[in-house]
Design goal:
The structure is a homodimer. Chain A is an alpha/beta fold. Chain A contains 9 helices and 10 strands.
C-alpha cells in the first residue's frame, strides 16, 4: 500500500471515520457492513467502499468490516499510534479550553506546557500545567522535545512567536490565530480560522434552497 | 449574476479573500491587481481571477480590483451586510472564548445570551452577558429572535439541546460538539470538530514529502 497515493480529500474524511469507528467500538460492535456504516454516517456505501479500499481493503465481501481492525489501521495512518509532545501558546479562554480537553491526551497529544505573554498569568495552573512566559519557549521546546504547538494568541503575537517555534524545532503548528503563518515548508500548519467558519455558516444560512 | 452557481469550493475560499481584503482596507490600499493579491495570498493569479469572476468580475483589465468594492461585495455574498442574533450554549472555556471574541460582533453576529446546565454558573457574567440555564432557552430564543446558536457543550448535551433549538426557531447551528447533529434540513449546521483538525495535523506531520 502506498499511502502517498491517498488523495487529500480522502485524508480529510479519515478523522470522521475514526470517530464513528471509536463510537462503535465503545458500543461493542465488532463488525459493520458498508451499508450500515453508510446509514450511520450519512454518506453513500459506495463512497465508503472506495475510501476504505485506499488502504488495501479492510472489508471482506459479505462479512463487513472488522471495526477494531479498521479503527486501529486508520489510527495508524493518522499517526495516532504515536505520542506527541505538545505546547499551547496563548493561555486565554481558548488556550485553556484546549488544555482542559482530556480527549487530546487520550489520542496521544500530551500537553507539556502552557505559555502566555501576560505577566499576571505567570505561575497560574490549568489542569496541573503551570503557565510560563514565552521567553522560556526556546529552552522548553528543546528540553521537552516538543513537536506540536497550538497557537491561541492574537494575530500579531502569533506572527512573532511562530518563527521562534519553528527555529527551535517545533514541526507542526495548530494555528487558531486569524492569520496565515509564513514558515519554512518543513513545518506543517493546520489552521482553525473560527471567523471564517462563522462566515461560511452565514453564507449557507443565506443561500438555503 | 446567479449566486446559486458559485461552487462550494469557491464559497469556502471567500472568507479568506474577505480577511485579506479587510487587512488591505485597514492598510489604506485602494486597488490591487490579481498578481499582487496572488503573491499576498499565496494562490495563483489565475485562480484569483477565476474565483472573483464568479461574481460578475469586479476587476478591470489593467486597473486591478477596487479593494473596498470587492470587500463589500464579498461581504454581501457571505451575508455580512446583515445582523444576526446569536446565543452560545455551553459556557465553559470554549463558550467563554467565543463570547469574548469581539470581532464576531463587528461582523454582525450579536451575542445575545450565554447558556449552560451547571447551576453554579447561573448569573455569572461574561463580557456583560449573564449566563442563564438551558431551561430558559425556548422562551429566550423566541423573545430575542435568535437565528444562530453556537453549541459548545459535550456531545451528549449537544444531542439533547440541538433539537430544542431547532424547534424554537434557530436556523443555524455552529457545532463544536464532537458529534454530527441530526436536524431537519431547514437548519444549517457548520461543524468545528477540533479533534479531527488535530488528527489531520498529525497525518500531515507523518506524511511530509
Amino acid at each position: 500500500m502506498d499511502e502517498h497515493e491517498i488523495s487529500k480529500v480522502v485524508v480529510k474524511r479519515l478523522p470522521r471515520y475514526y470517530r464513528y469507528l471509536g463510537d462503535l467500538l465503545e458500543a461493542k460492535v465488532e463488525r459493520i457492513s458498508s451499508g450500515e456504516l453508510s446509514e450511520l454516517m450519512n454518506v453513500t456505501a459506495s463512497q465508503i467502499r472506495q475510501d476504505l479500499n485506499n488502504f488495501g481493503g479492510f472489508g471482506q465481501q459479505g462479512y463487513g468490516y472488522n471495526v477494531k481492525y479498521l479503527y486501529d489501521e486508520i489510527g495508524k495512518i493518522l499517526g495516532l499510534d504515536k505520542v506527541y509532545n505538545m505546547i499551547i501558546v496563548g493561555a486565554g479562554n481558548l488556550g485553556q479550553a484546549l488544555a482542559n480537553y482530556v480527549k487530546f491526551e487520550k489520542n496521544g497529544f500530551l500537553i507539556k506546557g502552557l505559555f502566555d505573554v501576560k505577566p499576571e498569568l505567570k505561575g497560574v495552573s490549568v489542569r496541573g500545567i503551570e503557565i510560563r512566559m514565552t521567553d522560556e519557549l526556546p529552552q522548553f521546546i528543546r528540553k521537552h522535545d516538543i513537536q506540536i504547538a497550538a497557537l491561541t494568541l492574537p494575530k500579531s503575537g502569533a506572527e512573532v512567536i511562530a518563527p521562534v517555534l519553528a527555529e527551535n524545532g517545533v514541526k507542526a503548528i495548530w494555528n487558531f490565530a486569524h492569520t496565515d503563518l509564513h514558515l519554512p515548508p518543513t513545518v506543517v500548519v493546520e489552521n482553525v480560522h473560527l471567523s471564517e467558519s462563522l462566515m461560511h455558516l452565514s453564507y449557507n444560512l443565506n443561500h438555503m434552497d
